[in-house]
Amino acid sequence: MQLHPRHFGRDLRDKLVSKLMKDVEGTCSGRHGFIVAITGIESVGKGLIRDGTGFVTFPVKYQCVVFRPFKGEILEAVVTMVNKMGFFAEAGPVQIFVSNHLIPDDMEFQSGDVPNYTTSDGSVKIQKESEVRLKIIGTRVDATEIFCIGTIKDDFLEASCNFLLRNEILRTLSKVYLYSRPDLSLQLDSKIYVHLQFMLLYWKT
């Protein structure tokens, strides 16, 4: 990690960590995947001055949360584009393409102002901004990018009608975690607990 001489001072480490987070978070490594967030700094080594510039390069060892999809993984994604060849969707930073050959046979492409794939009975429609549950069947890893191929032909895939419900459960679980942290000295709110139990019961059905 390179640092400009103007940052040298008592807050050198803070400046270094700030620049590391700015430069690294949100990038993609073909080996490790997308770097979502830096969670900790393990060590900062001695700096090496670059001749003629004044910049100093510091070796930094850090921990981070990464996201790397793998073959066979089930993801929920948002459709970004639909055409007769299939559709593109995004799951976080990952772009996924689903070919028309990997879409259920009872879904047909409908052209028009809003291109979409619709079932014969009209009960399910996939168009831009739709939420879908898909399965990764292949990945292509470059130095700075990961591209995936997906399918919605398997059971329990296609349009995710419970997408919003699942997100609500995740948000509620986050509240449960927050309220149950011992360092906050707070107890789980009874309303949140009842709400969670009701949602999980509905989810099972």
Automatic annotation (TrEMBL):
Report the PANTHER family cross-referenced here. Answer: DNA-DIRECTED RNA POLYMERASE II SUBUNIT RPB7, DNA-DIRECTED RNA POLYMERASE II, III
The text of the family note is: Belongs to the eukaryotic RPB7/RPC8 RNA polymerase subunit family.
Q: Where is the S1 motif domain?
A: 69-146
Keyword Nucleus in the entry? The reply is: yes
Q: Could you tell me where this protein is found in the cell?
A: Nucleus
One GO term under biological process is: transcription initiation at RNA polymerase II promoter
Keywords attached to this Swiss-Prot or TrEMBL record, sorted alphabetically, are: DNA-directed RNA polymerase, Nucleus, Transcription
InterPro entries noted in UniProt: NA-bd_OB-fold (IPR012340), RNA_pol_Rpb7-like_N_sf (IPR036898), Rpb7-like (IPR045113), Rpb7-like_N (IPR005576), S1_domain (IPR003029)
Which organism does this record belong to? Anisodus acutangulus
- Please describe what this protein does: DNA-dependent RNA polymerase which catalyzes the transcription of DNA into RNA using the four ribonucleoside triphosphates as substrates.
GO MF term (any one): single-stranded RNA binding
Any one GO CC term of the record: RNA polymerase II, core complex
* Name of protein: DNA-directed RNA polymerase subunit
Q: State whether keyword Coiled coil applies.
A: no
Q: What is its main location?
A: nucleus
Report the residue ranges that make up the RNA polymerase Rpb7-like N-terminal domain in this protein.
Answer: 2-54
Lineage, top-rank taxon, reads: Eukaryota
